[in-house]
Q: What sequence folds into this?
């Protein structure tokens, strides 16, 4: 059975058994929180459990590395929408130890891209159009530095209003233990 068929079969039973009922909530985050975290598979259930987040508590944004790469990219847009449209007033950047984006070997990644059939020509065309692929694909060298950097980008964003607090924490993908990297309440 294909993955999609498996999902559809499961979904049919999920709906029939009304298993969704215990998840019904509102789209405004009850805890007025925005979480930016990594797509790491170990965090899917662990992160909300370790932070006591239930359905409806927070807007959770995910990408590779929990990084805000540019002030006018999709992550910043999501945070701004969460603040203005869904009334969030605190943002927590949640990086994690052992992140796949830490010390990512971008040359190796570009080799993999070529080995999967993307031609050198395509890569050169992208590079010649002013996009530094190594820089774009590169994650970070230190999770703490990356968290601090993302917190700064959010805090200093020209569209983030006064009074929004931005924290940065690092979580263990094994135990869920949290270390505070930036306490947004401290001036
Ligand atoms: Zn990660």
A:
């Amino acid at each position: 059975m294909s993955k999609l068929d498996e999902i559809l079969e499961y979904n049919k039973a999920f709906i029939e058994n009304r298993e969704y009922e215990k998840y019904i909530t509102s789209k405004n985050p009850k805890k007025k929180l925005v979480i930016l975290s990594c797509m790491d598979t170990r965090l899917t259930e662990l992160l909300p459990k370790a932070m006591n987040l239930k359905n409806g508590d927070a807007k959770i944004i995910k990408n590779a590395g929990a990084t805000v790469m540019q002030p006018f990219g999709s992550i910043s847009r999501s945070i701004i929408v969460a603040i203005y449209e869904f009334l969030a007033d605190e943002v927590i950047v949640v990086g994690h130890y052992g992140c796949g984006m830490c010390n990512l070997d971008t040359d190796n990644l570009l080799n993999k891209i070529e080995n999967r059939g993307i031609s050198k020509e395509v890569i050169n065309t992208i590079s010649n159009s002013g996009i530094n692929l190594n820089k774009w694909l590169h994650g970070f060298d230190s999770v703490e530095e990356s968290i601090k950097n993302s917190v700064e980008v959010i805090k200093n964003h020209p569209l983030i209003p006064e009074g929004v607090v931005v924290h940065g924490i690092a979580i263990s993908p094994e135990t869920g233990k949290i270390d505070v990297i930036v306490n947004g309440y401290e001036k």
